[in-house]
Specification:
By secondary structure, the chain is α/β, with parallel strands linked by helices. Helix content is 60%, strand content 7%.
């Protein structure tokens, strides 16, 4: 049942040309994730260092089991917030069991993912269409940017919504800490300039080192510029969290919601970067990788994790090609925890916000929005609605709204598909939709009708009415109506009953009903339902030409069944 370790296969076929990008990406991501994951630990309600503990096993496990060569797994903001919400009502008044509950929750979330893997629920990711991906990433980018506005300006913005964060930033801007704001602007300009002039240069890494050096050399912390400060040392001892029976049901309920959010974010981000860089991911394999990654986080006294869009963007910007970048980042984190904690102590938190904003701007693909608009207005609207839904509600609700609308649009296309009456075009081989050509010719008395979707309960009546309209549109009395079933792989019982009624109505008008290009599966359904007997096996034709010949030479029908 378990798939072979995809990441391990990729590492065993490693190419030397990838090394530079993976190392640079790993070092930069490490510099970014250390303060970020500590912040997420605090956000989840545990000790900040637990954010670093949680990421260590995840990096190794995902490297071996994950299907994306670029995704950065570990603590992220949404699951951290959901962890705090789930555990706060269950923890003791003094909070003594909070860390234990967080670790237990991570283990349970991992179990939910693994159950999903065995049930093969990865197919649900197929509901995440390209417009949803584009709109989702744009919405996430806005969330990332708005969340950093206070940090880059040295402001304390107390708001829980994006409009509130933006309003708070604009309102408090006159009170911004000028040295912090100047440093952020300089770093942001530097990042955009170096990206434009030297796209292959490790801009984020240079910015991190330059900002840290500036703080040390010019003593910017003396001017009030906030820095990361002391990083806790040491590594935790892996242990299984204690099971609290009275709280287990509540934790299981919360774990399902966290798993849904984490998986949606994980697959959306992984698929977005897979589409950008021309590779594929295995959505079901992601369930397995996330499952064991969360269990590892729980055993290391961490909390539920997923993937980080911002860290993935940074890795991509540095040209990472494999999960070796995660191993490099992991080694860097371990070295910092054990030996090199003072190195990042002077890293200004405003620079962290600047890196997030720079990375977020790369997620908003204006050209893709324009391409969707040129291609189909409904898909452009879906991308916009996804973006707005993510911003107006939250990630999970926004995704649910977008998927619902996507399914409704798909259902609408199935319920009202394209159809065509086929005819001949002078100088063009084959049979074609007569509406597409000005000088098309049909055979008097014969309607060759194509319906471009499987016939089912959703469109059975639509088929019947449009088929009747095609017959009524003929100038000559119709003698044969031949249904081209090349797009009809199967029918359901509603469609079968409708076809029986339709055949009877045609018979009352002395019109013969026939089928052509019938696939074997459809032929078997017609046989099981008794429709084959009602139509007549001699009126099932393998090609358009054999149907036309049978119409023109009724004494010598070409009687064939599908091969």
């Amino acid at each position: 049942m378990f798939s072979a370790p995809l990441g391990l296969k990729r590492l065993l076929s490693y190419k030397k040309v990838w090394l530079r990008g993976d190392i640079l990406a790993g070092l930069t991501v490490a510099a970014y994730l250390i303060p970020q994951c500590m912040a997420y630990g605090e956000l989840a309600g545990v000790r900040p260092v637990a954010g670093l503990w949680a990421i260590l096993p995840a990096m190794v496990i995902y490297t071996l089991l994950g299907s994306s060569p670029q995704l950065s797994v570990g603590p992220e903001s949404t699951t951290a917030v959901m962890t705090a919400v789930a555990i706060a009502p269950l923890a003791a008044a003094d909070g003594s069991d909070y860390a234990t509950l967080a670790g237990l929750l991570a283990v349970i979330v991992g179990g939910v993912y693994i159950v999903g893997y065995f049930l093969r629920l990865g197919f649900l990711a197929n509901l995440l269409s390209k417009p949803i991906l584009i709109g989702y990433m744009a919405g996430v980018a806005v969330i990332m940017i708005s969340g950093q506005l206070g940090k880059v300006a040295g402001l304390s913005i107390d708001a829980e919504t994006i409009p509130g964060e933006i309003q708070g930033f604009l309102t408090q801007l006159p009170q911004a800490h000028i040295p912090t704001l100047i440093l952020s602007i300089i770093l942001l300009i530097f990042l955009f300039v170096i990206q434009a002039r030297f796209p292959n240069a490790p801009g984020p890494l240079i910015a991190v080192l330059a900002a840290t050096a500036a703080v040390k050399f010019f003593q910017l912390d003396q001017l009030g510029i906030a820095v990361v400060g002391e990083i806790p040392s040491g590594l935790p001892i892996p242990r299984l969290p204690d099971f609290a029976n009275g709280q287990l049901l509540a934790l299981v309920s919360a774990s399902v919601g966290i798993a849904v959010v984490g998986y949606s974010d994980n697959v959306l981000t992984a698929r977005a970067f897979a589409a950008r860089n021309n590779y594929t991911i295995d959505a079901n394999q992601e369930l397995l990788a996330l499952g064991f990654s969360n269990m590892g986080a729980g055993l290391m006294q961490g909390f539920p994790i997923s993937s980080s869009g911002s860290r993935t963007v940074i890795g991509n910007a540095l040209g990472n090609k494999t999960q070796l970048f995660s191993l490099v980042a992991m080694v860097s984190v371990i070295l910092v925890l054990l030996f090199l904690r003072p190195v990042l102590a002077s890293f200004p938190t405003a620079a962290l916000g600047t890196l997030v904003i720079f990375a977020a701007t790369r997620l908003i693909e204006i050209q893709e929005f324009k391409r969707l608009q040129r291609f189909r207005n409904s898909e452009f609207a879906l991308a916009i609605i996804t973006m707005v839904s993510v911003l107006a509600t939250d990630l999970l609700i926004g995704i649910a709204i977008a998927i619902t609308l996507s399914v409704v649009e798909l259902f609408g296309r199935v319920a009202r598909p394209h159809d065509a009456v086929l005819g001949k075009i002078k100088g063009l081989a084959g049979w074609h939709d007569i509406d597409d050509w000005d000088h098309s010719v049909t055979i008097p008395g014969l309607v060759l009708y194509r319906y471009d979707a499987p016939i089912c309960f959703a469109n059975a009546e639509n088929f019947k009415q449009r088929a009747k309209a095609a017959i009524a549109a003929e100038k000559e009395p119709v003698k044969w109506f031949v249904l081209n079933t090349e797009a009809i792989a199967e029918i359901d019982i509603t469609a079968s009953d409708m076809l029986e009624e339709f055949i009877q109505e045609l018979a009352a008008q002395n019109i013969t009903f026939a089928m052509m290009r019938v696939k074997q599966d459809l032929y078997a359904q017609l046989h099981r339902s008794g429709m084959l007997h009602k139509i007549g096996a001699d009126l099932i034709f393998p090609t358009i030409n054999t149907a036309v010949e049978a119409f023109q030479n009724p004494a010598k029908p070409d009687i064939q069944t599908p091969s």
